[in-house]
Design a protein that fits this description.
Structural class: mainly beta
Distance between the termini: 164 Å
Radius of gyration: 42 Å
Number of helices: 6
């Protein structure tokens, strides 16, 4: 017999039932109805949600093995303990904005449909979140938002040092969607056993503002999923107005093989490495945008991706020293902007040959191997070019102007400078100098030399000497 219920507290009339509640309904657990706990203990399966009154103190179930709905514990002011001793499958658990520390124990739970921890904070330095779910391997949707939780590995050791108050999610193997955002004591996002996700992984703006419980230096970010092989949705890792001083950040996905959505890493400050050594295919886009400090990018096994956008961001920090896609075979558009370094865009020439659209720019400008080189020699003007004429004039002094010949005596190859000193007063010598050919036509210059080296009068000095010698003999 399955009891029908609405949002009112139910009474099970003390009858032991195999099934309790109604699918889609809500059971309210509130003071002073303490007997409801005994009635719920008699159930094997509880259908519908369970809503805990904010003033309830202890919620401890013994007996039920499945709860199809969600246990909702929001704004609880004195909830000290929440325990499900025998439950193996739970539709959901939403825990938000507690006032005091609460001990949560799910020792037999292996599967949770929706797990949410939101706005879990505390006032004191050594306060902590006590959570135990050692057998939990599957979560359909995980949302961890705006908490003081340090991560998903065990933390806060017990006084005897044999265990931890916070057990983390170390056994989690399967998930649909994981969303971890705006957590203020979290500088590590590590799911050590997660192997497969049918939805998306979203990690955003997690930072150890208190710099007290972090595993590393409090400012750099570590995202590590060492066993994750497949993501059915997207991988999105980002920061939004987070200042990170360290340069030790790392995204480590050593076993990831296939992403069916986007792979997006945006605005992570101080990140030094994105490690995806086995990633072979991204069905949609690859976006690496504005990650200050990331100088090297390597996708050694990526063969197929729909489109790629890599942007180093601002000109002071942005840019890459190396970008490597050695085995890429299929890509639509591929765009790279690396403004801070002289990244060698020609190293991506093999991608330019296969991409439908390609652009690459660095501190020297846009890469265009098909454009004429700016350092190539300019061929000399043809003889019919007006600029090659001796009479042509320009704004700058040229080798064919008379002033160039007098102001720059180092041009000894010019025929005008080879004229003897005593012949410069000759009208012929002056006219010859004015008609000196340009340097682009040396053959014409050598041909004009004899004309400027001829006799300067009707009688040469040699003839005069011979006449005088003949007169003396007579």
């Amino acid at each position: 017999m399955r009891l029908t219920t609405s949002i009112f507290a139910i009474s099970l009339l003390g009858v032991a039932l195999a099934d309790c509640g109604v699918e889609g309904g809500t059971i309210i657990v509130a003071n002073p109805n303490y007997d409801i706990m005994d009635e719920l203990d008699a159930c094997s399966t509880i259908f519908g949600d369970i809503l805990l009154d904010p003033a309830f103190v202890y919620f401890m179930l013994r007996g039920p093995q499945e709860i199809t709905g969600t246990i909702i514990a929001h704004d609880n002011v004195i909830l000290k303990s929440l325990s499900l001793a025998d439950v193996r499958k739970l539709g959901g658990f939403s825990f938000a904005s507690p006032t005091i520390e609460t001990v949560i124990s799910f020792p037999e739970v292996t599967e949770i449909g929706f797990l949410e921890w939101r706005n879990i904070t505390w006032d004191y330095e050594f306060s902590h979140f006590t959570w135990q779910a050692e057998k939990l391997v599957t979560v359909s949707n995980l949302n961890i938002e705006a908490t003081y939780i340090s991560g998903f590995m065990p933390d806060y050791p017990t006084y005897d040092g044999t265990s931890f108050y916070y057990g983390g999610l170390t056994q989690l193997e399967m998930a649909n969607t994981i969303r971890v955002v705006d957590n203020q004591r979290m500088d590590e996002v590590v799911f050590q056993s997660l192997k497969e996700m049918s939805g998306s992984l979203i990690v955003g703006s997690n930072y150890n503002f208190l710099n007290s419980r972090g595993k590393r230096d409090g400012t750099s970010l570590l995202v590590s999923l060492p066993e994750l092989v497949l993501v059915g949705g997207s991988v999105v890792i980002y920061d939004d107005d987070v200042i990170r001083g360290s340069q030790e950040g790392k995204i480590d996905l050593p076993a990831l093989d296939h992403v069916f959505g986007d792979f997006n890493v945006t605005n992570i400050g101080g990140i030094s490495e994105i490690s995806v050594p086995t990633l072979g295919e991204i069905n949609r886009g690859l976006y690496i945008l504005g990650n200050k400090g990331l100088k090297s990018l390597d996708f050694p096994e990526l063969r197929r991706v729909d489109h790629v956008v890599i942007d180093g961001g601002d000109s002071y920090y942005g840019g890459f020293e190396t970008i490597s896609f050695p085995v890429l075979e299929e890509v639509g558009s591929f765009h790279v902007n690396a403004p801070a370094y002289n990244f060698d865009c020609s190293s991506l020439e093999h991608i330019r040959q296969i991409a439908s659209e390609f652009s690459c720019s660095n501190s020297r400008g846009t890469y265009d191997p098909d454009a004429p080189s700016s350092t190539s020699e300019v061929p000399p003007p043809s003889p019919t070019d007006p600029e090659s004429s001796p009479t042509a004039t320009t704004d700058e002094p040229s080798a064919t102007s008379g002033s160039m010949e007098t102001d720059q005596p180092s041009q000894t190859n010019s025929p005008a400078t080879t004229v003897p000193a005593d012949s410069t007063s000759s009208p012929n010598a002056t006219s010859d100098a004015g008609a000196t050919p340009t340097n682009e036509s040396p053959a014409d210059a050598s041909g004009s030399a004899p004309a400027s080296s001829g006799a300067s009068g009707p009688e040469s000095p040699i003839v005069a000497v011979l006449l005088l010698f003949t007169y003396w003999l007579l």
